[in-house]
Amino acid sequence: MKKLESSLTNMVVVLTGVAVIMGGILAYVNHLTEGPINAQKEKALADGIKTVMCVDELTVSKTDTVKQNDAKGKEISYTIYQTKDAQGNDLGAAVESTTGGFGGALKILVGFNPEGTILGYTLLEHSETPGLGAKADKWFQKGEKGDIIGKSPAEPLTVSKDGGQVDAITASTITSRAFLLAVNNAYNAYKATPAVDVESGATKQAKE
Questions:
Q1: How high is the pLDDT of residue 156?
Q2: What is the pTM of this model?
């Protein structure tokens, strides 16, 4: 068998072949893992909705997307999961909201009752400093120093350093401001949902 000559052309052919094979392998692995990853994300979201709505038995009756511009004019999308209990009663909604934190994107899920009062929250994604900004996961929960549960963002929630009523995370004012902004934005998105009137706590009826 004739030995393959070493040349630029042969090297390019070999490298191209290797790249094609590796690309095929990666695509196949991605295909195999895509399903389980998506299933895991769906379960995490379902569990998160139950957590922030403080109800174990509920159904997501409708999913809405609301787009609003932030203070800089950038359009941001919010996902609103309208929920009902086992008897079909309106529980309110869980809202996904994202803002920029100290280390990157800060994504939260906030639960509101029909009147717009905060029921609970959970962090979905963050890049905050471990031990400082990452404390947002617990800091604003019921009974903690920055407790926001039971409050309404009808009057925007702000940290005490800015004249507000919420204690900021120690040494993490930027993260605290970003977190509360995400909560306020979530409330505004929920308020803008066509099917809900959070001021009266009633579901708007479609005109005949």
A1: 96
A2: 0.75
